[in-house]
Design a protein that fits this description.
globular; mainly alpha; single chain; Ammonium transporter fold; 69% helix
Length: 430
Amino acid sequence: MFKVINGLIKAFFMSDLCISLDTVWMLLAAMLVFFMQPGFALCEAGFTRGKNTANILFKNFVDFMFGSLLFWFAGFGMMFGNDGTGFVGTPNFGDLSFYSGDLPVEGFLVFETVFCATAATIVSGAMAERTKFSMYVIYSVVISLVIYPVEGHWTWGGGWLCDGAAGSFMMKTFGTVFHDFAGSAVVHSVGGVLAFIGAMVLGPRLGKYGRDGKSHAIPGHNLLVAALGVFILWFGWFGFNPGSQLAASGSVNRMAISHVFLTTNLSAVAGGVATMFVTWIKYGKPSFSLTLNGILAGLVGITAGCDLVSPVGAVITGAVCGVVLVFSIEFIDARLHVDDPVGASSVHGVCGILGTVLTGLLSVESGVLYGHGWGFFGAQCFGILCIDAWAAVTGVILFAGLNRISSLRVDRRIEEEGLDIYEHGESCYN
């Protein structure tokens, strides 16, 4: 009898220790993802001109400040609450009691909040150097409160794209559910699509395109700052992807996060190497700025399937994203005449879509190339189509509506002389 009681006590304390360890891991990962905010800020600032640096930095703070408040107040419930239809959960209005799970709800809220802020931040770089600060605050609020929580509910919150019940739409149609482990689709492709639409509605920066339609480069003011931002983003991604396991205790979890660490890093370096050689061949010299974006392209691409692909699959994913990135940036700039100063539409939009689809091919457990049929691939294609259609429709309504109500764009004089002084009354560099 004593041995039984002693065993139960040990089991209880071990279980409690495991939950505590998982909680610490989740919060540590949340800290790493939060650290991506300065990474985005530095990357965007470095790729743009010095006269707009304070404005860019300020917008990254806005994303996290408003995103945190709104996601806590209503977005968390919309994303993880139950609605019975699978479209969107019920707003929680600051009440977290609706959510039940092994991990503390407040810690889980913080973890999900930093992902929400990332989705909003992606848009900032594409619309940099000519957007009214007041308009930015409004669309950052809408993205954090409406656009992101709805599609997040579909995929991560128990909604229709992740409903694995026998009679669900996804199971009847594809025999499986949509998979996005850490956000290639949910976070990055949505941010990239919104960035593209925002930049398109806003129009190009003054002097970007000549009368003949030829694109003119507008170099960023500090590649050192941009490079530091990429290093920080790379570092933060080790919270973004492995942290999405939400657990570190036990053999299954420690193997899982170790695998995700490896695939995440391999895809990043493959993306950078691929971009470096493509630019070297295409332009005669290896482009440092494009290689920086190539690293990010690899990171974005692997985020959907980092748990399912092999190390070889991760290298393939990163390399494909790194190659496609170069041609995507050139096509959007030179052919579509959409001015995206940091390449967010390509890095996050195109590569987010590409990584999600490649997961359907390269997943060891269910991918086409491993002999598992086309069901999972179909689910991935359908899921990314629905998610980005939602982003596109809401993005057009949001940006076109704001532009009609009150122009998104600052006056010509403000754009020429810089947003820092005119929008904020202070400059980053004195």
